[in-house]
Each structure stands twice: as C-alpha cells, then as structure tokens.
C-alpha cells in the first residue's frame, strides 16, 4: 500500500478569459498510493474537476498547465507522447463523469460501449469482455446483469446508468479511477446504491481513486484521505477520521459547521385558523398518465411547509397545480379560504400576485438579456404600477432586503453574478410582487453548502419580517431539518405522511419516511457500513422495497 | 490510363515526402512534441498544401507569361490570385484601421475579428456606399444609351484589344456603360433583396414565435401550412406566381417589382418560420418565461421582451444567409426574365444579356469578362455576407459556452 501511484508536484493551471491567462490552480501537490481513495472537496470554482482532469494529463479547452509535474507510475504524463497517453488512458486510468446520461452515446447499447475500451487496448477479446462486463454488472448490483447490457442508455434509470459507467471504467481493471461527482445528480435513495457499489468494487480490485464531490457526508463514506481545496489552493489534507473530528483550518471548520443551522420551533397552528393555501383532494394528470392522487394539505401563515420525496414523487407537479400551470383534474386549490380558478389564465392579477415562485435553476429563471434592475422592476411596475423614481427606490429597497448593494448590481446582467447571487435575485423578484405565499422549488439544491445555508438564512429572516408562507420543495432532508415547520412526504403522487417537523423526525415513521430519513448521508465515516449492515448488504434495493 | 498512373505516382511521391518530412523533423528537433505526435495524415496534408501552393505560383507565372496563348489559358486564375492578394491586404488594412479608430467597443470587436470577417464587412460597406450614392458615383445613367459609342466595347480599356479608356469595363450589347449599370445594379438588386429579407423575417419571425408560445392547434395550422409551401420547389413556385402577378400588375398598375418582393418574402418566410419556431421553443421552456406567464404578462411582452432578445444571435446569422438566398433568387428570376424589368439595371439580367460572350473565354478572355463582371459582383457579396455570418455564429456560440 505504500508505493506511490500518482504523484503531482507543484501543479499550476491557468485558464484563458478576456485574453489573459488567469490562475485556476496555484501549485497543488497530491500523492496517491496504490488502492487508496482520496476525496477532493471544495465549492464550485475551487478547481476540483480541473485538478481531476489534470491528473490524467488532460486539460479542457482554454486551460493550460503552466507549471509542475504529473507522474503516474513513473511516467511523466505532461511530457509523454500522445501514443503513450493513448495507451494509458482508459486502460490504466479511467474517468467517471458527473452526468452518465450525457456521457453515454445514446445510439449504442451499454455493452457495446463497455467492450470498446478492452478491445481497443487489446486487453480482452470482445466475447470475453462482454462476459466480464456482465460479471461487473453483477458486482455493481445492477438488476438482470445478463441482459441489462443489451439495453440502450435511455432504457435504464439514472442510478443504473451511473453504475454501468463505473463498470465501463472498470472494464480494463485500471489502477486509477477519477470519479467526478458521480452521485450529485441522483436522489438520496439511489445515491446509497451507487455509493455502496463504487466503494465495494474499488476495494475489491484494489483500485486507487480520486473522488471529487462537494458533499462532505458522501466523501466521509468513500475516502481514506480528504483534501480540501479553496479557489485553487489546498487548504488542508488529512486522514478522513482526523479531518472529520479535528479540522485545523478555519475554512474546513466552516464547511463542517454548515449543517448546524436550525430554526427555533414555532407554536402549533391554532386549529380554527384559515390556511393561506389549502390543497384539497387534488388529482392531476399529464395527458392520460395520472400523476397526483387525492393530494391534500394546508399551509398556514408564517409557516414553512417542506414537501419531500424523490424525483417523480409529484412534489413539483403539486406546485404546478397550485400556480395554475397544470389545472387539476379534480379537487380545489383555495387561497385564504376562497377557491381559486384552476387555470392561471383565468386568475385575476391580484390572485397571480399572491402566489410567487422561486426556481431551482437560477440560470434559467432569469432572462439572460435583462439587467438585474429590469428583472426586479418588472413585477414592481406590473403589479404595483410604480414608475420612475418610485420604482427605482422600491427596487433598491428589495436589493437591500436580499443583502446586495443596489448601486453595484442594478445594471449587471445575470451572467455576471455567482450562483448564490442569482438565486437571491430570484427571491427579490418574488418579493417584488409583495406576495403572501412563495413556492421554493429546490432552491438550494444547485448550490454549494455554504451558499445554500446563506440562502436558507435569508429566507428565514424574510419570513420572520414579512410573515410569508413558504412551500419548500426539496429532496434534501438536511434542508428540511433546517427550515421546515411542517413536513409533507410524497411518493408516487400520494401524500404518504404529513405533520409538524418535530413529530416527523421522531419514530415511528411510515416505512417510506424511514427509508428517506436513513438514506441521508451523515458525517460519520462508518455510517454507510452500518446502514448497509442494517439493511442487509447484498440487496440494498430489495431491502428498501421490503420496507415499503 | 496514363492519367490515372500519373495521379497515383503523384500521390505516392507526396506520401513519401510527407513521411520523410515527419522523420527528418523528428530527428532535427530532437523529437519535439510537434513532430513526435504528428499523425501521418497531418504530414501528408502539409506536403499536399505545399504542392498546391507551388502549383498556384506556377499558374500565376503562366498567366503573366509573354506567350499570349499560354497567358490566355491562365487569365482568370491569374485575376483570382491577384484579387485574393489585393483583398487580403485591404482586409488587413481595414482591420488595422478598425483597431485604432472608433469607440472602445468597436476597437475591442476589431481586436478579435478574423481577416475573413473584416473582408466581409469591408465589402458590405463598399456595396452599401455604391447602392446609396449610385446616382452620384456612376458616370452614366443606368438606361442611358450613349450616342456615338459602339456597343460591346470589351472591358479593360486597352484600344489595342478592342477596349476604350472612357469605358473601363466596356459597354453592353446596346452601348450602355457596364460600370454604371453595375453600380445601379447594386442599388436595385441589393436594395430589393434587403427589403425582401426584412419582410420575410417580419412575417416568418413573428409567426414562428407565436407558434412556439401558443402551441397547440395554432402551431399545427401554421406549421402544416408552412410544410405545404416548402414542399413546392421554391424557384418554380416563384416563377409560377410571378407569371400570374405580371397579369395583375398590368391590370392594377402596380409595379411587378412590388409583387416580386411580396412573393419571395412569403416563400422565404417559411424557412424563417421554421428557425424562429425552433429557437422560440427552446426559449419558451425556460423558467423565466414561466415566471412571466405566471405574472400575467401578455403575448406582446412575452414575444418582444422575453423571447426576441434571446433569439437575436441565431436570427441575425440566418438573416445574413437568407439575404444571400433572396438575392440569388432575384438574380435568378431576372436572369429568367421575370424579375426586375429592363431598363432597370440588375446583375441577373446583365449576366443573361451578355451570357453568350462566355464562349470566347479560351482565346479572348477579356471579351468573356463582360458577363462575368455582374456574376462576380453577386459572388463577392454572397461570399462577404457568409464570412460575416460565420463570424457572428462563432461569436454567439462562443458566448453560450
């Protein structure tokens, strides 16, 4: 275990923007022993992925390696010839990308793509490689390992595709695999399966790995050692357990402390109070496919109702019903005790104003050709009829409310803001309408943890000050813990369980709630091992199903 | 048989030279990465490029040789090489000018501009100036038959070869000055093409966005209607409609050109519709459109404030391309005799009128130049617009990254 497989010394990378080369990574050292798993964590823009790719001697377009060395098993990858690198990449060094769906060629079957590497590198004959692929599929606990390879990428689920890609990376039994956020796009319940599979197979073949992620709890399960990056600089490196129990740097401590945010409990709702929004016996369908079945719950003034469930559970569809984008086929949505027209086109301007929405992807939620000022000013003018100086003053006040300096940001375009800032603009646009009720659709899931925490704190503050009611759609139970007053758990278009947060996090649970709760990674490095033992290692998926 | 053998021999020699080029490169530079990782195809390409370049130099020397027969054979190639070098220098000078004159914004634009785009802009400006000030620049009127001057004066202005220094580009079959007609042609052909393209974009763009936003049955009706129009070969369709329109124009007293603009605009708007609808559909699914809809915004605001600003890059690129097609269609219709009507000067008509001179190309290249001047004017503008469009497409895709 002591001999070094990968040795990166003083690596500096620069990226080209505005016709100058700007540093992305400023001299990072990295050593990796055979069979060791190194976790690489940091916020977006910290240079994790760039470093991961550089470990293969590769850079994206517009990025160059300006200094340092990358030595893989005694071969200097930076000066090696293209022929030598061709012989290494795919055979001895493999890469697993974040989005398996975008990385597989949709026109070919999984197994055909799987065998390409071994056949090209002359490791195995095609028939042997196919058999080996099936074996790997079995080891990665894919259903029907004999036949799943003959499906096309769109015929398997996201989690299965991610495992098929791991199998593909394993095809030539590489010495090093670079995992670039392999589970970030997956649900918590699916994530577990992928994590467990990756961990097992890496252990089994004694493969070294670099595991890139921004999720600390995930990295705690996977890595032997953790390296923390901040803006292209190494913050610290240590053994996983040491790092978790005793981080030495301030930045690392702040990362660790993120999940500490929790709002004080509010007094229970008065039974006679009229709910701000009430969803009563709502059914909804996309075409002929029925997606919501008899969904009912109330949301009271000044409360945050978290709606949780995995993708496809009907959380967002419920939100679409409330906004009127998808008129329900049965049931009513009432606002302040009065039923609202089902279709948003039939609602009055005032009814539209009362229900606002904040979106998951701030990138697509803000018109890229409008300045921040215009974006926020539009609802101010549209609903409140303010113009000229009054309008400007209102926009400035809103920017102040979301803690952004009006003079600095008024004329900027969305592309000139960071992810967290864009999300704040989304909040300001919703507030500009002076609504009573805001739907937050996965507002923090695309953000780094530190930034997400800032957004949650801001939302909490605004709620206390303005008495807003939030419907908070999320699949992240840590967020629920932080911000919710009441929780609604959904699955397959039905409400499985609903109640105040305190009750929801206390057993006994509905089995599905239990599965969701137990699937949230914890910072304890033994968590995954214990969980798998609890559920029975060989059939996590089945165990989950049994519990239903 | 021997021609085939010669080609095979040539390829074999190039391949051998390419291999030794790479081998010697590796030895001389001590295996530098540039030569070490060079694939054989790339080396072959280098050598092939060199061979073509040498052949061009040889051909140019032939075109200025003192033997008239040889020089005639390579006349047009010689002109093309001279024009290429001249235009490259002009484009370079124009870019240099742009980098040092103007506002900070235009200077920044010119810093990154490729030479092709700079050439394109230069040519477009040149054409625009000609078109706008045609009356002031042209030495004669477009329909002026100059008295006392022979018809069919050969271009070049050399009396020994049948030219006349007073008419550097010669005269046409009834004694009109070709230079003046070319300049007025810029006004007629380019002006009408521009107006037609604008109209096509107005019709196709607004309907396409409308189909994208509203969807449903309106989208079906519009799209299927467009499919029907597109199923008919456009030039034949235009010819047919123009024939009908020529009757109406006589009855109603409206100039035929007006109908031509309308007909070509409608036919070309189908292509714009398809693009606008496709681009619009990509934008309509964005959350900011949903937010605007939920706010209660009207259709006008959605189309012009939310969608249009985000669709300008692909639409502008399409505008350039569409302009070329419209322009060629007009030239083609005029060539066939139903487009811009004489005595108005039009490049398509000019090519047709003098087309028979092309037969003299091999032994009297100057005489054959007469119809090619108008054809060259069409080609130059088409190439220039395409260069600019390519550059804009590249820029807009770069911004998206």
List the defining traits of the structure above.
heterodimer; A: 548 residues; alpha/beta; Rossmann fold; 2 domains; six-stranded mixed β-sheet; 23 helices; 20 strands; 25% strand; disordered C terminus; B: 401 residues; mainly alpha; MetI-like fold; 16 helices; 0% strand
The main pleated sheet of chain B reads as: none
Radius of gyration of chain B: 26 Å
CATH architecture of the largest domain in chain A: 3-Layer(aba) Sandwich
Shape field of chain B: globular
Strands of the widest sheet of chain A, in order across it, are: 6-7-8-3-9-10
The helix fraction of chain A, in percent, is: 25-40%
What is the overall number of helices of chain B? 16
Helix/strand-derived category of chain B reads: mainly alpha
CATH class of the largest domain in chain B: Mainly Alpha
Indicate how many domains the architecture of chain B comprises: 2
Low-confidence stretches of chain A: 538-548
User: In terms of quaternary structure, what is this?
Assistant: heterodimer
What is the name of the CATH topology of the largest domain in chain B? MetI-like fold
Strand % of chain B is: under 5%
Question: Stretches of chain B where pLDDT falls below 50 for ≥5 residues?
Answer: none
Rounded to an integer in angstroms, the radius of gyration calculated over CA atoms of chain A is 25 Å
Strand runs of chain A, count: 20
Q: How many beta strands in the DSSP annotation of chain B?
A: 0
CATH class category name of the largest domain in chain A:
Alpha Beta
- Average predicted local confidence, pLDDT of chain A: 84
Query: What is the CATH T-level topology of the largest domain in chain A?
Result: Rossmann fold
């Amino acid at each position: 275990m002591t001999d070094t497989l990968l040795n990166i010394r003083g690596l500096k990378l620069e990226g080209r923007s505005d016709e100058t080369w700007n540093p992305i990574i400023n001299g990072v050292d990295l050593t990796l022993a055979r069979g060791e798993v190194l976790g690489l964590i940091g916020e977006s823009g910290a240079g994790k992925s760039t470093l991961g790719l550089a470990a293969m001697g590769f850079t994206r377009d517009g990025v160059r390696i300006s200094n340092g060395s990358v030595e893989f098993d005694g071969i200097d990858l930076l000066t090696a010839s293209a022929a030598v690198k061709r012989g290494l990449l795919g055979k001895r060094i493999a890469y697993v990308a974040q989005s398996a769906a975008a990385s597989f060629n949709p026109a070919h079957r999984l197994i055909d793509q799987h065998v390409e590497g071994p056949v090209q590198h002359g490791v195995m004959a095609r028939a042997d490689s196919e058999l080996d692929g099936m074996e790997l599929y079995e080891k990665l606990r894919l259903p029907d390992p004999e036949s799943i390879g003959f499906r096309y990428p769109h015929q398997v689920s996201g989690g299965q595709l991610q495992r098929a890609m791991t199998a593909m990376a394993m095809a030539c039994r590489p010495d090093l695999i670079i995992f670039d956020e392999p589970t970030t796009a997956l649900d918590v319940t699916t994530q577990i399966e992928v994590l467990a599979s990756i961990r097992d197979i890496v252990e089994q073949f004694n493969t070294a790995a670099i595991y890139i992620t921004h999720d600390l709890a995930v990295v705690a399960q996977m890595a032997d050692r953790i390296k923390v990056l901040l803006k292209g600089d190494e913050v610290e490196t240590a053994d996983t357990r040491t790092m978790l129990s005793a981080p030495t740097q301030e930045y690392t401590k702040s990362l660790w402390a993120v999940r500490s945010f929790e709002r004080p409990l509010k007094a229970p709702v008065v039974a006679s109070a009229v709910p701000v929004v009430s969803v009563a016996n709502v059914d909804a369908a996309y075409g002929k496919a029925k997606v919501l079945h008899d969904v009912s719950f109330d949301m009271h003034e000044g409360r945050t109702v978290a709606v949780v469930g995995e993708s496809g559970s009907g959380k967002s569809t419920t939100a679409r019903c409330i906004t009127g984008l998808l008129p329900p086929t049965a049931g009513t949505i009432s606002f302040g005790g009065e039923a609202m027209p089902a279709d948003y086109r039939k609602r009055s301007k005032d009814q539209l104003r009362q229900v606002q929405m904040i979106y998951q992807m701030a990138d697509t939620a803000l018109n890229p050709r409008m300045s921040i000022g215009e974006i926020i000013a539009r609802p101010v003018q549209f609903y409140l009829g303010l113009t000229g100086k009054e309008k400007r003053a209102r926009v400035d006040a809103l920017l102040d409310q979301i803690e952004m300096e009006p003079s600095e940001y008024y004329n900027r375009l969305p592309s000139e803001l960071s992810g967290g800032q864009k999300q704040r603009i989304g909040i300001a646009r919703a507030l500009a309408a002076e609504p009573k009720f805001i739907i937050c659709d996965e507002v923090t899931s695309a953000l780094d943890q530190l930034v997400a925490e800032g957004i949650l704190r801001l939302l909490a503050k605004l709620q206390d000050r303005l008495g807003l009611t939030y419907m908070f759609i999320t699949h992240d139970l840590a967020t629920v813990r932080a911000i919710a007053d009441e929780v609604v758990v959904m699955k397959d278009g039905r409400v499985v369980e609903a109640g105040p947060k305190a009750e929801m996090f206390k057993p006994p649970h509905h089995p599905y709630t239990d599965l969701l709760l137990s699937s949230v990674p914890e910072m304890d490095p033994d968590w995954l091992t214990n969980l798998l033992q609890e559920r029975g290692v060989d059939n996590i998926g089945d165990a989950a199903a049994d519990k239903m | 048989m021997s021609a085939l053998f010669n080609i095979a021999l040539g390829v074999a020699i190039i391949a051998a030279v390419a291999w030794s080029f790479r081998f010697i490169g590796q030895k001389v530079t001590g295996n530098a990465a540039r030569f070490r990782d060079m694939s054989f195809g790339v080396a072959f390409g280098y050598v092939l490029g060199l061979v073509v370049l040498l052949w061009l130099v040889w051909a140019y020397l032939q075109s200025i040789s003192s033997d008239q027969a040889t020089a005639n054979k390579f006349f047009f190639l010689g002109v093309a090489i001279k024009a290429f070098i001249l235009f490259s220098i002009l484009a370079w000078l124009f870019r240099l000018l742009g980098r040092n004159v103007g506002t900070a914004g235009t200077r920044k634009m010119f810093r990154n501009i490729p030479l092709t785009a700079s050439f394109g802009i230069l040519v477009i400006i040149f054409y625009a100036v000609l078109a706008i000030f045609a009356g002031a620049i042209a030495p004669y009127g477009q329909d002026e038959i100059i008295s006392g001057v022979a018809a069919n004066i050969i271009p070049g202005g050399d009396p020994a070869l049948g030219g006349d220094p007073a008419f550097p580009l010669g005269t046409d079959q009834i004694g009109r000055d070709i230079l003046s007609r070319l300049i007025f042609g810029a006004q007629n052909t380019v002006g009408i093409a521009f107006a037609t393209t604008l109209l096509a974009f107005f019709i196709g763009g607004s309907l396409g966005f409308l189909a994208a936003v509203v969807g449903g049955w309106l989208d079906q009706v519009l799209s299927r209607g467009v499919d029907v129009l597109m199923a008919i070969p456009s030039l034949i369709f235009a010819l047919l409609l123009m024939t009908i329109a020529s009757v109406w124009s006589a009855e109603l007293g409206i100039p035929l050109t007006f109908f031509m603009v309308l007909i070509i605009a409608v036919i070309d708007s189908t292509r714009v519709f398809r693009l606008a609808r496709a681009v619009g559909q990509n934008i309509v699914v964005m959350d900011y459109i949903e937010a605007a809809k939920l706010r209660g915004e009207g259709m006008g605001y959605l189309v012009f404030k939310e969608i249009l600003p985000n669709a300008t890059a692909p639409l502008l690129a399409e505008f350039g391309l569409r302009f070329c097609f419209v322009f060629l269609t007009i030239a083609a219709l005029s060539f066939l005799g139903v487009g811009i009507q004489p005595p108005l000067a039009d490049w398509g008509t000019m090519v047709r009128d003098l087309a028979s001179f092309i037969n003299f190309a091999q032994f009297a290249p100057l005489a054959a130049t007469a119809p090619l001047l108008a054809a060259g004017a069409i080609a130059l503008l088409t190439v220039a617009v395409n260069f600019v469009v390519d550059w804009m497409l590249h820029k807009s895709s770069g911004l998206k990254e």
